[in-house]
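WARN  no MSA supplied for this record, continuing single-sequence
INFO  ligand: adenosine-5'-diphosphate
INFO  echoing inputs
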Amino acid sequence: MAIRVLPPDVAAKIAAGEVVERPASVVKEFVENSIDAGATFIRVEIQQGGKRLIRVMDDGCGIAADEVPLAFARHATSKLGSVEELNGVKTLGFRGEALASIAAVSQLTLSSRPSAQAAATRIRLEGSKQTAFGSAGSPAGTIITVENLFYNVPARLKFLKADATETGHIHRIVSHYALAYPDIRFSLQCDNRTTFQTSGSGQLFDALAAVFSLETARQMIEVEGQETNPNSAYPIEVFGYAGNPSLHRGMRDQIVFFVNRRWIQDRALNQAVVQAYHTFLPVGRFPVAVLNIEIDPTQVDVNVHPTKAEVKFQESRLIFKAVQRAVREAVVAAAPVPHYGTHVAPSSDASLSGHAGDPASWRGMFQAHNRADAGHFAFEAQRTLPFHAEGEDGTPADWFTASDPESKKLPPMRVIGQVQQMYIVTEGPDGLYLIDQHAAHERILYEKLAAQKAKAAVPRQQLLEPAIMELSPGHAAIVESEFEVLTEVGFEIEPFGGTTYRLRAIPDMLGKAEPTQAFVDILAEMADGAIPLAKETHEKIAITVCKRASVKGGQVLSQEEMRELVRQLEATTAPRTCPHGRPTMIHLSGSQLAREFGRI
Ligand code: ADP
Ligand code: MG
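INFO  complex generated
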């Protein structure tokens, strides 16, 4: 094919793809525009996860009538006049791309009125083409509506997720901006219901309570720190809130950063916060934090990506240090003084004892399944080779068919021991197996749960006293949309007004887990959407519950427990992979070992 310049509409759609990935990207751009316009009130309205409709209304400065069409031209902005200004941008927008991009892939209506103007200007565009222009009555400010996003880009449309997932992303965006701008009153309407709002009181604490729940906000401590910057007259300032050590989550997604009140994502800074909690949090748990970094705008480049979600710092190490130190100081100050003689981190007493990781919770399960011969000593089994000596009838199992690599079934195995409190070492007919205890247990629980669900008989534990939970709006949206599935897997939940719910029962397999903590962890995991192999929501929820319930790495297993785990794994239909699709075991065959040792 000969080289030719792409027609403008094709080029526009391609460019739009960089800015607009999903409905939440549109919400982000519009909210940023409203903030730049000096709004004190921003109302976001969505329908069907934003796929059907997104509307953002503000009371900002509006756009003058004669400039309205220009706002939709590519690289048209009122926020940047020269390339020098790029070094030190103070507004959230500056690329002049968002409106043009969004208009290229949707049906868009804007009506805007500066307060000095008598009537609002109304414009409509469909796939970049202006289809209407005129004036209308409207309050001062801007109302922008996007309908049928990606109606003309089927490839993108196809990749949008379920309404609940897209709604969750939008919740995240709106709540993040609500945290960055406690002085702005935000509200979010999903399918005609208010699911989130802030007071605009100017107090970060109020915004935290609106985003995370009052209960969580009460467990957060103020962070404040300063570091001098040798390259600038302005210091680096870090302020916000971080959870006290008893507040922790199964994932990192509740560490939120702003740089000069722009929401950014930065792995290194996340790590700075995690490190600040070193020894204060249980292994595998992450803190909650909302932090703003104020820095000389010339020391940060916000123009590294079209969505402006990543930034480049001139002094990234200094910023890392500032964040880590500020958070560490706050956490240390808040941590209770350890009692004499205790050797565990102060956080572990209350929060850990009810954890699913608590050996007692799954130990009981193993014991219930133990066979009569469970009392045998491991060493005895080792001496009475062959490895299947513990087989029920004493006859050797058919090694050869069982060890056929095509066979999904496991060969009979003899447990040798545990390595790193994480892997079970076994011997099979053809060499050595290393079994990941967590992955294996996940597989076992997953099949168990599937069987129970098929019989509509998932055992649940009734809580002695129902727990009242105030959920974040994002999590409440998940409960709302997945209510049925959550009930099926064993949760008994009752709406209790707003985003508050009453938890009456949890799946039996969660053992002694702290019920609300387990429930919130599972919601967080679902919100994250990080389970690639599970397409169906019910499958995803089942996997998440099993993940939470299964034995973790770092737990010492007795010989009997290991044997029982292996026996149960043998009984599953797909013993070689966990429900996430990762391997449960690694096999080192006899010939592999011989080769490694140079015997052949
Ligand atoms: P940018 O924000 O990078 O300047 P956009 O494409 O998002 O680019 O917006 C283009 C211009 O439209 C902005 O520079 C601003 O002047 C105007 N604009 C967009 N949204 C609003 C709004 N809600 N209120 C006032 N002006 C707006
Ligand atoms: Mg913008």
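The chain has a mean pLDDT of 82.
INFO  checksum written, moving to next record
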